[in-house]
């Protein structure tokens, strides 16, 4: 901890390392983003470490920061020092926290990306008013977190919960995790592309703008393409979005059945277009739970932090650790401060 920097002035860097992009932000103690850097996520360990070093150096050249938080889309060990496995990233059974702390010359906090995002929504969003609630992040893939009594639930080995890789179609679409038929292959940003290609290949609505533009080059379809065309009224793009919403609702039903939360918060980059699919998803969720119509269900809301939740949440975690006297990289946030962040129950 730098004794010359007050808690209210302390800045940390939060880095959200997703399957597509690596996004880094300087965040103040109140969760406000001050500055941002972004790069494509590299596919090798040396390139990924270089990219992290680059964005941190760029931000440090403009701001006085005291710690770095890494939000990673993968399995983190219970002590939050290592990455066991990440479907979209190159780390495999690697000690990451202390290694990057040495490379960067700053304290580093390592966290699962969905847990980090959930912590941001717990502090600054709707999670703070809920007893038990689930975070359901929809981006390139799907991430999940469970918060109960103000604490992140991690499970015995630190990997709970894993919503995105629930098998929903036996022998279905192949997944980068090595399985087939995972939920995120039907309900994610990348799933929008896959579904659109399948619909075009089967000849559905050949006169639609989506089919006409991409029949010969389906590899050019992106999730944003589908969303944009759906908003313009394209019938095929609209059906892709509806299919996405139905799968999302089935996934939310599983969350409801197993965890019985009072609130489900949708986050991730795809959630910014929730107005296109949220009603369908909630309807589908209600149809797919046991005792439908005879039990209370979670309210489903979009998070207030959107795609920035992971960066903000992990930056706040890094700031909470750095605020403790004589911290090492293995320190964890505690309660006791008067600040909005540190006065909440630790994660």
Automatic annotation (TrEMBL):
InterPro entries: ATPase_NBD (IPR043129), ROK (IPR000600), ROK_cs (IPR049874). Transmembrane segments: none annotated. One of its GO terms (molecular function) is glucokinase activity. The keyword Transferase applies. Keywords: Kinase, Transferase. Belongs to the ROK (NagC/XylR) family. Residues 324-347 are annotated as: Disordered. Its EC number is 2.7.1.2. This is Glucokinase. It holds the Pfam family ROK. PROSITE patterns: ROK.
């Amino acid at each position: 901890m730098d004794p010359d920097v007050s808690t209210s002035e302390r800045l940390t860097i939060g880095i959200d390392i997703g399957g597509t992009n690596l996004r880094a932000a300087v965040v103040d103690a109140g969760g406000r983003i001050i500055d941002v850097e972004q790069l494509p996520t590299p596919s090798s360990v040396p390139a990924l470490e270089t990219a992290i070093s680059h964005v941190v150096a760029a931000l440090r050249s403009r701001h006085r920061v005291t710690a770095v938080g890494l939000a990673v889309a993968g399995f983190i060990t219970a002590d939050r020092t290592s990455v066991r496995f990440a479907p979209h990233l190159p780390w495999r059974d690697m000690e990451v926290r202390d290694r990057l702390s040495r490379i960067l010359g700053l304290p580093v906090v390592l966290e699962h990306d969905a847990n980090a995002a959930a912590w941001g929504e717990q502090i600054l969003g709707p999670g703070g008013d809920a007893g038990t609630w689930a975070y359901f992040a929809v981006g390139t893939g799907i991430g999940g977190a469970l918060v109960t009594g103000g604490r992140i639930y991690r499970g015995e080995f630190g990997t709970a919960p894993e919503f995105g890789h629930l098998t929903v179609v036996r022998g279905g679409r192949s997944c980068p995790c090595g399985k087939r038929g995972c939920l995120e292959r039907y309900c994610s940003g990348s799933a929008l592309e896959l579904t659109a290609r399948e619909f075009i290949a089967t000849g559905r609505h050949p006169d639609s703008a989506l089919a006409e533009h991409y029949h010969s080059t389906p590899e050019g379809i992106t999730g944003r393409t589908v969303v944009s065309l759906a908003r313009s009224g394209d019938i095929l793009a609209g059906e892709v979005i509806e299919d996405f919403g139905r799968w999302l609702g089935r996934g939310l039903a599983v969350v409801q059945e197993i965890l019985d939360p009072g609130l489900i918060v949708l986050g991730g980059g795809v959630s910014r277009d929730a107005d296109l699919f949220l009603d369908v998803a909630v309807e589908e969720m209600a149809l797919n739970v046991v005792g439908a119509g005879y039990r209370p269900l979670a309210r489903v809301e979009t998070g207030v932090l959107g795609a920035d939740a992971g960066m903000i949440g992990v930056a706040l975690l890094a700031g909470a650790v750095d605020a403790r006297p004589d911290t090492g990289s293995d320190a964890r946030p505690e309660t006791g401060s008067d600040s909005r962040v540190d006065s909440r129950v630790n994660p």
